[in-house]
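Training component of the fellowship. As part of building independent skills, the fellow (R.M.) carried out the full modelling exercise for a liganded target. The chosen ligand was zinc ion. The inputs are recorded below so that the supervisory panel can assess the work.
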Amino acid sequence: MTGEGAGREEALLEIAERVSDIMEKACKKCRIIIAQGEVCPICGSSDLTNKWSGYITVINVEKSEIAKKLSIKVNGRYAVSINS
Ligand SMILES: [Zn+2]
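Fellow's submitted model of the complex:
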């Protein structure tokens, strides 16, 4: 009963794969994933899509290089690719 392998340091972000039958929508402008509603809470856009795949969870936007590359300024979940 050892817990080997469970002590991995938590990364600043988490990458996960998603399949296409997604209920949640992503904002086409800032990529944030929106669980509910029709308007992006960050940029106010109503240009949302459910055609996105892959997401990252940014939990420390100030230290995340990927957040900088994606111009992410607020912690949250963001779609990696959006098929517009
Ligand atoms: Zn937005």
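The panel noted the following from the submitted structure. The two ends are 49 Å apart (CA to CA). Residues 3-13 have pLDDT under 50 and may be disordered.
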